[in-house]
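Shipment paperwork, digital attachment
Item: protein structure file
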Amino acid sequence: MSVEPMSLNQLEINERDLRRVLEPIETARGLPNPCYTGTDAIRREHDSVFAGGWACAGFTKDAPGAGNLFPFEFAGLPLLMFRDEDEEIRIFHNVCRHRGRILVESPGHVRKAVVCPYHAWSYAMDGRLIGTPHVGGPGKHSCPGFDRDNIGLTPVRSAVWFGLVFIDLSGTAEDFSDYIRPVADRWREFESVELVHTGADCTIEFELECNWKLAVENYCEAYHLPWVHPGLNKYSPLDRHYAIIEETISGQGSECYSPTFPDGALPFPDANGLSDFWQTGAEYIALFPNVLLGIHRDHFYAVLIQPDGPSRTRERFEIFYYAESVRDPEFDLSRTVNRELWRTIFAEDRDAVESMQRGRSSPGFDGGVFSPAMDPPTHAFHAWIARALTTGRKRRLAAAE
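Attachment content:
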């Protein structure tokens, strides 16, 4: 029997369905299908989820030195990451204030200023407009009533934490320290470690045929390990995992981290000063809305989740170590083995998340239910999204008054 395609009304989010997500886990339903399939969800998520508060936009390594430029798109907007002369990361809207042309099309480097390729208006590293050739006519680079001081690049509120760059497009979100506190406090033992990224052997990229939220919620829970990751489950069995749930995070921890290396591969240096817990402990957290974090005594990784329409997701996976010595040739094999390990584990999730995406087109699925014992991290993410879509994200008190 054939299934009729979804109508336009079925692609719109029903507020009643979102309220059901917020019920106690025993009676809650998951996010409704239109949250994964419809253009209404994209628009609302751009406004409420991604532009409504702090979200991860990239990595500090994207602009590694003074003068480096890194253009990117976020929530449908063209943005520009810029490392200024003081080595500080700045984010601006990537459009010239004259006629709205995109300023920077590809990563690069400048010495003093960004120059628009349309009419050569130029902007200093702090966003100030410093050059307007012929604006008053041929040979006249200023004109009466033209106030350069009020026509600089439009800045975006930003913050840096653990090699990651976060932005607040609304400009009214809570202080970044409040947003990041649940994970920063949890991993305070690592706060002073040196993060070392060695290039291509620390980078993995995936393109998935699924909605971005499925990639996040799959990461939150360990319930699927015995069937999707049988090899990993032998090493780190389901009953040795525990749930992690706080205001802006959810995920899982493992009590049996014990890396092994093939002959000729050296173990990585551990971070200094760690408590005994981290000898065998590891934690895997989704920081809402869009970055997945994994921490171990000998390395850290972050996965930037980038939505591409309702049914495609790009993942940028970056691995970081804790000592410059891992750049040495004697660690080449170890880095290769570690990268391949994580590439394999994340690739094993592809069939599951892409199949769930196809399932979201079925009228026989109504958001699903949750196991009170195994799904609290997933329900926490669903509830966070539902609150963002219905009542918005947290705001600074000054903005609310």
